[in-house]
Design brief:
9 strands, two-stranded parallel ribbon, Rossmann fold, alpha/beta
Length: about 375
């Protein structure tokens, strides 16, 4: 009701007072950035979120905010390792930029991060979708966040160690459902009132977040499109689904994803030469260098967990070499896989949530199988 009142209010205002929508004039190439992008944070008793959205042209040309992962490393870890700083990841998102007033409401995409990640882990992906006319919301998932995992590398574990997300109940399930609850409320109240469509929500995720997408998505009718990346396939769902993976992924083998996708008869885009982290920006953090510089030679480190996390933190990164058994001479450059991910995620969500564009077609990129 309040959404209809908002549009009636806009329509009934005088020309001097009227809030003028800013049309989305998008480049023809779905992989190319569209509108400027804004970003805001939100925290309540249940979730910590990052929200990216189409921003007003008034911020065109302004520098975007760097994504800073350092706050995710606890003081307990810093007390042991000493002073260090993870690299900042540049983004196009302008902090607290004015929302682009829509001609029609924006669909929403909810994003779920992987094991050892954070809500900021895939900013190239999330900001791109925002530039193309989506409000994208990513939640931290306590129990599988970077800040939960790193303290567990030590023996004995440091304060804050939490491996609950490595088995058992999915800690992200409640988070993404709560985000869907928030979207329903925000459609009528707050700074997004009248600008988002709670009847058009996509769910996407990487690695463990792909598992959340594949399990929570089909069980919650509020999610209208599913895009898991680098992991699981929703095997029983009528909800439209696109799966993306890499042929050089040593964490979740391509053959396993192919078999699941074929059994479920869902669309699969395989990126030839991509590793596990191609669907994130975590390679920018140089975590292999961090492990070599701060962790490898320590006697108080859990070697088994360190070995697992070093593999997870470097799979797909250009400075790493794919395992010999994968028969991959080198990982595909990230700028190539980034473009493919931007392209196919955009045409998929455009088709399902906006009802526009060509949809998913193969043969656009030689590296996309």
């Amino acid at each position: 009701m309040l959404r209809r009142m908002w549009f009636l209010l806009v329509a009934c205002q005088s020309p001097e007072e009227k809030i003028t929508p800013e049309p989305l004039e998008l480049p023809e190439d779905p992989a190319e950035q569209g509108a400027p992008v804004g970003v805001r944070s939100f925290t309540d008793a249940e979730v910590s979120l990052e929200i990216w959205y189409p921003a007003s042209d008034t911020v065109s040309g302004e520098a975007g905010e760097d994504a800073d992962f350092n706050p995710f490393i606890s003081q307990a870890v810093r007390d042991v390792l000493g002073d260090f700083s993870l690299p900042l990841v540049p983004t196009v998102a302008v902090r607290d930029a004015p929302l682009r007033v829509p001609e029609k409401t924006y669909p929403v995409v909810v994003f779920s991060h992987g094991l050892g990640g954070t809500r900021l882990q895939s900013v190239d992906y999330t900001t791109h979708l925002a530039s193309r006319g989506y409000v994208v919301i990513a939640s931290d998932h306590p129990g599988r966040m970077m800040g939960d995992i790193v303290p567990c590398l030590f023996s004995p574990p440091l304060e804050g160690c939490d491996l609950s997300g490595m088995g058992g109940e999915d800690p992200a399930d409640a988070d993404v459902r709560h985000v869907a609850d928030l979207v329903e409320g925000w459609a009528d109240e707050g700074w997004l009132a009248g600008a988002i469509d709670p009847e058009k929500i996509g769910l996407s995720g990487h690695s463990a977040g792909a598992g959340t997408t594949a399990t929570t998505g089909p069980s919650d009718s509020r999610f209208d499109a599913l895009l898991p990346m680098g992991a699981a396939v929703a095997s029983t769902t009528e909800t439209p689904q696109l799966v993306m993976d890499g042929t050089c992924d040593s964490i979740i083998p391509d053959a396993d994803v192919r078999a699941e996708a074929e059994a479920a008869a869902v669309e699969l885009v395989r990126i030839n030469g991509a590793g596990h982290l191609a669907f994130s920006d975590l390679c920018e953090l140089k975590l292999l260098d961090f492990a070599n510089n701060y962790l490898i030679d320590r006697e108080d480190v859990n070697p088994a967990l360190l070995s697992l996390l070093v593999q997870l933190a470097s799979d797909g990164c250009p400075e790493s070499t794919p395992p010999a058994e994968l028969d991959c001479p080198a990982y595909l450059p990230l700028e190539t896989s980034d473009e493919i991910i931007r392209y196919y995620s955009t045409v998929f969500f455009d088709d399902v949530l906006y009802g526009r564009g060509p949809g998913v077609e193969k043969g656009i990129f030689p590296e996309a199988l």
